[in-house]
Amino acid sequence: MEMWRRALSDNVRDTFPDLTARQMALLLTVYTLSPPHTVRGLAGELKMSKPAVTRALDTLGRMDLLRRK
């Protein structure tokens, strides 16, 4: 929990845009689960719609936090 608190604290103090809970959940899911990662798989894992996952992934891509293939 302390590591999570420090990471979130650093994030909100930085000039980088804040991540939404959805974006953070996607990043943590991609980071902690073994690939391959698909929109369908991420949507199922997070109980989200595929369009919502796609929008969040596109935003994270524009932030250079991930790359889609």
Write the layout of secondary structure elements.
Elements: H1 2-13, H2 21-32, H3 39-46, H4 50-62
Helix pairs in contact: 2-4, 3-4
Summary, kept brief:
The chain is mainly alpha-helical and 69 residues long. It is 65% helix and 0% strand.
Q: Count of DSSP helices?
A: 4
The SSE order reads: HHHH
For the secondary structure, the number of strands is 0
Low-confidence stretches: none
Helix content: 55-70%
The largest pleated sheet is described as: none
- Helix and strand content put the structural class at mainly alpha
Cα distance spanning the termini: 32 Å
What average pLDDT do the residues reach?
A: 89
Which geometry do the CA atoms define?
Answer: globular
Radius of gyration: 12 Å
- What is the percentage of strand-forming residues? under 5%
Description:
It contains 4 helices and no strands. It starts with a helix and ends in a 7-residue tail after the last helix. The model has no long low-confidence stretch (mean pLDDT 89). The chain is globular, with a radius of gyration of 12 Å. The chain has helices at 2-13, 21-32, 39-46, 50-62. Helix 2 packs across helix 4. Helix content is 65%, strand content 0%. The chain is mostly helical and 69 residues long.
